[in-house]
């Protein structure tokens, strides 16, 4: 089997973690990437064996508007810094995967700059899609072009152009030759041309053994991308959503249905990249209504079919909310020493889950089988391993068929088989991984972890009046949002959708009309 079949990923957004400025002035090189060496020690110690890091290459802002594919972003350092970081990771047995932004470039990329300067005389005129010299764009260049997501900052490459494809393939060859990278995470893979992906896969297979290609796919049937001709894996956004809403709504049917639907549609879930949060979504501690459910949720992340991953800092319960105009709060600078200095039950749990996942090969290769399911309790098998989780306040019990005795990895509880059955118990908001109890069993250190059990939507519960003494016209956007939520809460219980609807509305007139509608 390939290395990625047993991978447990740690995900780093380096511009944020290293504390780089949000705007690149293309000035003096600052060797911030060197600050990641202690993080490599942390990754190894925690139990991860793969690192997905990026974006890394020269850009003007958040990293996805590439300026130069051949140069480490000067806010992070130089190519030697990156080469040494990858080697240090490899020396620890950690594979390294780069973020690859091939769907579009930034406006400072050499080919786009040439079009701006030379227009119809540019040899790169057809490197980008739908260039119209009779149109215009928000930067008043005097021409228009296809972009990604409606952002003219991100000019869409024409990957059907052989010159563009060859350029991208040369970039990948350079990354392998120069940095010895082990794979790529393809940004916006769900809009990349399938023929391009097939050629990329063929080329990558030829330049490095077991070179892994994973794509960012948010919607669609994953098997269209994950197959022998194209990608090895894609991001499992379907499971991501089910992990928090299945707990928030006390509905394990949603999670079980998600797994069954994915497998019935021809997907090999064991190949999908599983995550609770990442650099584009809200931190999991904010998505999850009741933090007591951190234990069963992370047990599911590591035990369900898939390649599990943790976004940097989330193993410590780092907070961060998704904002309309900025991702800074979910891509922060973090001080590792500060995080490690505080005893953290979530970190202890993640360490043990990494250890179990690495040692129990059934969690990488074992077939999935649903054994018992209610809205609040869920039991399934991965090969000979049995997993139980509970999202209610009350303890849960399971009576399942078995041909041997079992022992719990987290609590070291032993259960004996009787008449071909075993009786398993799980505490409220708990989870357990059960392995055969025989003379060859692997022993795990029992852990005693506790998470807050108050069922609340967010940390900051709303006061009776959000901004006493102020008129609505005097309130800021944030105060208006808080006032609306306070009014809504007085009329009945809030749910996550209601709160998000309010917080995503940043238009003053709309908020004023909304808050005035309450009587």
**Rg from alpha-carbon coordinates:** 25 Å
Number of strands: 21
* Class of secondary structure makeup: alpha/beta
Q: Are there runs of 5+ residues with pLDDT below 50, and where?
A: 456-466
Q: Name the average pLDDT.
A: 93
In the CATH scheme, the class of the largest domain would be: Alpha Beta
What is the architecture of the largest domain at the second tier of CATH? Alpha-Beta Barrel
CATH topology annotation of the largest domain: TIM Barrel
Strand percentage: 15-25%
Strand order in space, largest sheet: 11-10-9-5-2-1-13-12
Largest sheet: 8 strands, parallel
Q: What fraction, in percent, of the residue positions are helical? A: 25-40%
Coarse shape: globular
> What is the multimeric organization of the chains shown?
single chain
Provide key terms for this protein.
single chain, 519 residues, alpha/beta, TIM Barrel, Oligo-1,6-glucosidase, domain 2, Immunoglobulin-like, 4 domains, 6-stranded antiparallel β-sheet, 18% strand, globular
